Task: structure prediction
Amino acid sequence: MSADFLYGIEVIINGLMAGVLYALVALGFVLIYKASGIFNYAQGVMALFAALTLVGIMEGQVPFSHLINAIFGTKIHHFGWEVPALLAIFLTVLVMGLFAVLVQKFVFRHLVGQEPIILFMATIGLAYFLEGVGDLMWGSDIKTLALGLPQGGSRWVEDLTSPLGGDDFYGFFIDKLDMVAAVVAAVLVTGLILFAQYTKQGRAMRAVADDHQAALSVGISLNFIWVLVWSLAGLVALVAGIMWGAKSGVQFSLSLIALKALPVLMLGGFTSIPGAIVGGLIIGVGEKLFEYTIGAPYLGGATENWFAYMLALLFLVFRPQGLFGEKIIERV
Amino acid sequence: MLYREAGDFKTSYKSDSQTFPIAFDRYRYWAVMAFAFLVIPFIINDYWASAILLPFLIYSIAAIGLNILVGYCGQVSLGTGGFMAVGAFACYKLMTAFPDVSILIHVILAGGITAIVGAAFGLPSLRIKGFYLAVATLAAQFFLVWLFNKVSWFYNYSASGQINAPERFVGGIAVTGPNADAWAKYLVCLVFVTVCALISRNLTRGNVGRSWMAIRDMDIAAEIIGVNPLKAKLTAFAVSSFFIGISGALFFSVYLGAVEVGEAFGIQKSFLVLFMIIIGGLGSIFGSFAGAALLVVLPVALKVIGVDFLGWPTDLVAHLQLVVVGALLGLLQ
Result:
């Protein structure tokens, strides 16, 4: 097998890995959209906020230290303790749960029944607000996420696949972090699908997604379900934030991964969890393959920014509801 | 007592259908116009021009454009930054290719080119609606920024990818370039704003505007009663992009003078103009001005209060700006 062909396969595998990471972000969107019809533009910023909180708790930072120092003239920065990773993750999940309660209480309870575009604008406002609060609480410098996740290329895969090519071929280069992310995403998705199908609260969530009033009439508490869904989305955001943050450090650009998840959602449909996964994989592979085959040789490279959108746009023209989404029915 | 509608009777159709039927509004409009044209050019200085007035005027044009698309026609677009880039680069290529033609003509032509590009990117709106369309316009945004970065013909093969506005004169007075006076730049932008606002006010009150609003309110019902959705949506995209292109051309040539496409016309710009029209009011010409004024003045005001008054460090104030904008957006639903 020629080196180009083998490299092409490596590009595809790496595309699958990148797709898994996109799908992880898209999952949070799907959860919230399924349950409340809100497209949560703030999902990316939630991932950033969750990662910032995790690092802040692990390093024992004082929240809002910059603001406190400016107002009171003190110079405190750290508590002086360090929290072990698992406990810090648990505490961060609690923080995201608290955030879900506050968001439900102060923002979305007042916007029940509004048009989708109004809810979308509210989440844009929430995104900016949360970004500002996150920066105020933990500072806006780049932080490293030291959770002990394995990084770097996997020697085991390289050794396993090097016999496939000729003498010049050294085996597929696949990042260990990507493999861990794929496994984590698989576990998360399986957990979410099982939750949605087989538990009482999961079924209640699906009932709320179908019809708010019918769910109310059966006795399901809308507020509780919405808080639950936002907490789950916060958990997914935390996992996504950990994976992306371990890759490139916890910084503002993490919130831009929300923009990357949008084509995934358009492709897979907004209301489908398997759609988010499949869409993510298609976008991941498509992006990398396009860059490798057409982008770099003929178009000068750097096409990854916009190709995903063009691909999704093309899909939408032929199938406006995405691959797995519900058919859009409009009543006049 | 001063502001009353009652007792103000009209005796001709022309006076009944004027833009400001209430007398107080009319006098206020003429007073503001007189102040803007006759008083400000004499008292303006460089700081006020660069920090507040020029961005306000330029973003007002962009906000009017986007308001036509989002507020009057209901098509959500996140491609404003990309279209402003089209306007800026079109103006640049025209200015360098035809140095003898007046810059005013170039700005209008740049608007025209942007209108064509906008109509082309508006074609998906015939099939995709609402929020999916917002994401489709993001494709336009990212693609256009990539295009102006990659294809070096657009920035005349310069090594840095940055475009610089050559010095141009209107009636012997410099309006672009480093020697331009603040009042000259201000007057050029003010003239464009007035003309654009008048055009948009008349369009939105006429047949075309009514077809846009019909599409916004209920597009299937509009199609049933005979409003042509293709014509309405594409004209909305074209007119909106015309204004956004003019705004981009002025932003580059008169306000900044030199622009790098990734920095100046990225997605943040698209969101900024969208916030202006949301906060100012969708479907309202005055709302475009109000939103532009608020979002131009707010960072300056916060900075003055935070840094100069309270002595806080600048990054803290920058974070607070985000918090305030987000809160405003969330609360004003």
